[in-house]
Design a protein that fits this description.
Structural class of chain B: alpha/beta
Strand content of chain A: under 5%
Largest interface: A-B, 37 and 41 residues
Order of helices and strands of chain A: HHHHHHHHHHHHH
Radius of gyration of chain A: 27 Å
Distance between the termini of chain B: 60 Å
Number of strands of chain A: 0
Number of helices of chain B: 20
Number of helices of chain A: 13
Radius of gyration of chain B: 25 Å
Strand content of chain B: 5-15%
Oligomer: heterodimer
Helix content of chain A: over 70%
Structural class of chain A: mainly alpha
Distance between the termini of chain A: 48 Å
Chain lengths: ~300, ~425
């Protein structure tokens, strides 16, 4: 009896010491996390709450609560609809292309090609070129009297129906290198034994590619897709430098709409568009995670 | 140890927050060397016991600066601090000041008053940012709507609202010889085009006006014919706009022009039309005399009203969320003050009817000149409003047409495409 009591007391003491140590550890961790948490709250969460508030009132000065009126007005606004259409069109063209082409390039460079490192440097070089220089090169290249006139005649590329194609090319040129490096890193992490076993079996090229390589790099595919999607929204910077705040119709993106709304003091419009864009991004990212979980699950397991 | 970490962290956060929070409201008054003269004229001890009014601006006319100094020296309840947003502009970014102003408005750090110059007022009024000054005029003991020169009041008003006030104005118009233009008092764009075609043998359709000036003037003052802001429609692909571009190209010159004496060119029938900037009755009399009375200020082409346009260079408005509206009104009404208006009348056309009538009556000019000048002022229905975005789109695109790089239809298409987005956005 005495022994049992002693044992129980000893266990309780150990538990108490463990709980005390855990609590202390949590407190220290919380203290270290606090600066980041404060930063996130001040610079992300609070501004987003303010933006949601602005989207529900007439304007920052009158502040009359109008509930969803701003959303209704925004959805019926022709400029907003055009911006959404162009952004969706641009993203649906450029993101799959950026992922697919960079994946193909990474797979090619994963083989034992000659000049491998030179190719890698070649595709990475656009990353070190400043945006202003990139835009200048593109302006010269696609000017109606630029070098392309010998192929297509005097075409005002950025003011024609080809305008978005020019921007898709610019986007690919700028982003392929980085995507490719990410894919190459993922490919190099696939266990070599698996590839060697597949070669000995012998598994065909397609089987190795789809059942081993693509499955193993599926988290990277998701990451690259997300990165490309975010970058596709950021293409506004290049478009604005190339074609100004009010470009030709097919180049008018969501960020043009928001930027111009800010300049014209349409804060409720800007806030409403930002909230809708955040929601759309949330849906897209959730879908991507869903697909990644569904198809890449067996690799993780 | 834990206490020390928490303490250090608290201090760092407090300093950071204080630095972030402290910059915005006081940046303008704490900028040392960049302090502007109007504010320097105000001593700290003079501001004690008085309420501060803030006036945002990018530029201030010396006459207005004087008025502010007078106001600060005489008003016992309020004083004005000028917030010069142009000081935030840099060589790399000349819109930084504008950006700062808009960020301040968005952040609720709104000034009490603003000098908006020729910026389209709709940018502010569409969002309910400005006060309708009629509210103050209705209850003011000294001033009312009848205080103003009627044409100028029409031009300042937005429908039945009066969101801005200006102490003086200039008339901008197209003029020529009455014997050539005829007795008509206004014309439409097709009528101008017919007139130019009928007189195509004349060497210079627009005297001292290079093509950029002609394009700017014609498009700026006729833009309401191609833009229906209310319904969000643009009509730059129309035959009328295409003809406007063709007219500008045909009747103006792309090469640099040697300055010509306008009256000589008009009298000798070597020129048809010129731009007139009438800042006072003496300017008008001088042109009238030079053309020996054979003068017609016909104005810019317009579908309705008159093409004689009022230019208000110093235009003031009061923000709707100002906490000191009475004080802001005290400053605005000081711009209508008799003594100040009489001083203004020596250089510009005063907004006050009494000062205007006095300066015209006292002018050493003939009764015919006075009558013609009064007719010109009475004809005013609209003000010039410089929509920089729209004007930039038109001039950027049409440049290619004037340089023979694109056809007029291609240019009109591009303008339509870009301008329509701009108009859609504002709805």
């Amino acid at each position: 009896m005495k022994m049992t009591q002693l044992k129980s007391r000893s266990e309780n003491k150990t538990k108490f010491i463990a709980t005390k140590a855990t609590k202390k550890k949590i407190k220290v961790e919380a203290l270290f996390l606090l600066p980041s948490l404060v930063g996130v709250v001040i610079f992300y969460i609070l501004p987003f709450i303010v933006i949601i508030y602005y989207s529900l009132v007439t304007n920052p000065i009158q502040r009359d609560f109008v509930f969803l009126d701003n959303y209704k007005k925004l959805i019926s606004n022709t400029a907003f609809r055009l911006a959404v259409k162009n952004t969706v069109l641009f993203s649906t063209k450029s993101v799959p292309l950026a992922v697919f082409v960079s994946l193909v390039l990474a797979l090619l460079l994963d083989c034992n090609l000659p000049w491998k490192s030179k190719f890698r440097t070649f595709f990475l070089s656009p990353m070190v070129v400043p945006v202003a220089s990139t835009v200048l090169i593109w302006q010269v290249l696609f000017h109606s009297s630029g070098p392309l006139q010998f192929f297509g005649g005097h075409v005002e590329w950025l003011k024609s129906d080809y305008a978005q194609l020019v921007i898709v090319l610019l986007f690919l040129w700028k982003n392929l290198g980085w995507n490719m490096i990410l894919f190459m890193a993922a490919l190099s992490n696939i266990p070599r034994t698996l590839i060697e076993v597949a070669a000995l079996e012998p598994a065909g090229f397609w089987f190795t590619l789809t059942q081993i390589k693509l499955k193993y790099i599926s988290p990277t595919i998701l990451f690259v897709t997300l990165l490309s999607l975010i970058n596709s929204f950021k293409v506004f910077r290049e478009v604005q430098l190339l074609a100004g705040d009010y470009p030709y119709e097919s180049l008018y993106m969501l960020q043009h709409f928001m930027n111009n709304s800010f300049y014209s003091l349409d804060y409720q419009k800007l806030a409403t568009a930002a909230v809708l864009m955040a929601l759309a991004m949330l849906v897209i990212i959730s879908l991507l995670f869903f697909f990644e979980n569904r198809f890449g699950k067996d690799v993780e397991e | 140890m834990k206490k020390k970490i928490v303490c250090c962290f608290t201090i760092v956060m407090a300093v950071t927050l204080a630095a972030c929070g402290g910059q915005a409201p006081e940046a303008l008054s704490d900028n040392g060397n960049q302090e502007i003269p109007v504010n320097l004229a105000l001593k700290v001890e003079d501001t004690e016991g008085r309420t501060k009014l803030t006036l945002a601006c990018f530029t201030l006319d010396p006459l207005i600066e004087e008025r502010i100094v007078d106001f600060n020296n005489t008003n016992t309840e309020y004083y004005i601090e000028v917030l010069d947003y142009s000081q935030f502009n840099t060589a790399d970014d000349f819109t930084a000041g504008d950006m700062k102003l808009k960020t301040d408005i968005m952040g609720g750090n709104t000034p009490d008053l603003i000098e908006i110059g020729q910026t389209p007022i709709e940018i502010y009024t569409n969002k309910g940012l400005f006060v309708d000054l009629n509210e103050f005029l209705e209850i003011d003991e000294q001033f009312s709507r009848s205080t103003f020169v009627p044409g100028a009041l029409r031009a300042l008003s937005s429908g039945d609202k009066l969101y801005r006030l200006s102490p003086y104005f200039t008339v901008v118009s197209l003029y020529g010889k009455s014997s050539t233009i005829g007795q008509r008092t206004s014309w439409t764009l097709p009528e101008l085009q017919n007139f130019l075609a009928e007189h195509s043998s004349v060497e210079m359709a627009f005297v001292n006006m290079p093509y950029a000036h002609v394009l700017h003037s014609l498009s700026m003052y006729t833009v309401d014919q191609f833009v229906d802001g209310e319904n969000g429609l643009t009509n730059f692909k129309s035959d009328a706009f295409i003809t406007l571009l063709e007219t500008v190209k045909e009747y103006s010159r792309t090469e640099s022009l040697e300055y010509k004496e306008v009256s000589e060119e008009l009298l000798a029938d070597r020129g048809l039309l010129a731009t007139g900037y009438i800042g006072n009755v003496k300017n008008f009399a001088s042109i009238y005399d030079e053309l020996q009375g054979d003068l017609n200020f016909i104005g810019y082409p317009t579908e309705k009203g008159s093409g004689n346009v009022a230019d208000f260079f110093s235009t003031f408005a009061m923000f709707a969320d100002s906490e000191h509206k009475q004080g802001a009104w005290q400053f605005l009404r000081s711009l209508l003050d008799e003594e100040f208006q009489n001083r203004v009348a020596q250089m510009e056309i005063p907004i006050s009817l009494a000062a205007y009538e006095k300066v015209v009556d006292d002018a050493d000019v003939s009764s015919e000149v006075k009558e013609a000048f009064n007719l010109l002022i009475a004809s005013i229905t609209k003000s010039s409003s410089f929509d920089r975005t729209l004007m930039n789109i038109i001039s950027e695109e049409s440049e290619d047409y004037f340089q023979d790089l694109r056809t007029v239809e291609e240019v009109a298409d591009a303008i339509q495409s870009r301008a329509s987005i701009y108009i859609y956005e504002s709805r």
